[in-house]
Amino acid sequence: MSTSDSSGPAPRRVYFLSNRTAITAETLGHSLLAQFPELRFAPLTIPFIDSPGKARKIVERIESDARQTGLRPIVISTLADEEISAIIHQADALILDPFDRFLPELEQEFHAASVHESGKSHRISNPTLYESRIDAIDYALIHDDGATTKQYSQADVIIIGVSRSGKTPTCLYLALQFGIRAANYPITEEDMDSEDLPRHIKQYRNKLFGLTTDPRRLARIREERRPGSLYASLEQCRKELRAAEQLFEQYRIPYVNTADMSIEEIATKVVELAGLQRLSKPVLKHVDE
What we know:
Layout: E1 12-18, H1 23-33, E2 41-46, H2 52-69, E3 74-78, H3 82-88, E4 94-96, H4 98-110, E5 123-124, H5 127-142, E6 157-161, H6 167-178, E7 182-186, H7 189-193, H8 199-202, E8 208-212, H9 215-225, H10 234-250, E9 255-257, H11 263-274, E10 284-285
Parallel strand pairs: 1-2, 1-3, 3-4, 6-7, 6-8, 8-9
Antiparallel strand pairs: 5-10
């Protein structure tokens, strides 16, 4: 999504508002705005709007933006509190509210009234599954970047790839969202020079899943970490990625190219292609995030 720069029309201000963390508003909003790649947006997330006073200040800010830019701001709101939501709806903006859109139809379908209360997003509905998810996160952190390999037998999947190919965030997302125990192991130049899989992961071949990416993208990421280094050079990135992909092909290790994929998409593709089992029931009951 584009943000402001010195050329072209002014970006449209987009507000993500919530009584709680605003994660739901952000997720929905970014998905919707991504359908307009030719437009430029200036997103602003405001969580924990839990009083009428805060809501009024936000209305003032929204209307100030409208006056300054001459463009009506967009508001994507998951405000479950009816009083606070009513105040926000007074703003001169396009307000998209999934609660207003969907709750009446659900109430009619269920023949029941919704609570319209904030603070429900993190209520634990199944303590056992919640603890399993926490265990998976701990496992991913302990087994990050090949730090230890002693408990690889307990892994659901072992993500492998060259440095900075997205292994760590993918493992953490798999743990946090799906309760999957994911370790990750870096493929080094020493490993590439060998004609065999690294000894630490060789016996777990059936658990391996590879990540690769575009050399130019990898070079940009590495340049931020180690500017001007051989490690960040385009030629080095090409060499390492080519060797890693040959390794994946040789040992029939499933892999994906992550260059144009979000972490959410990468993790979902890993689950699909590796045949992994997600948590069977939701850990959290969501009303508003």
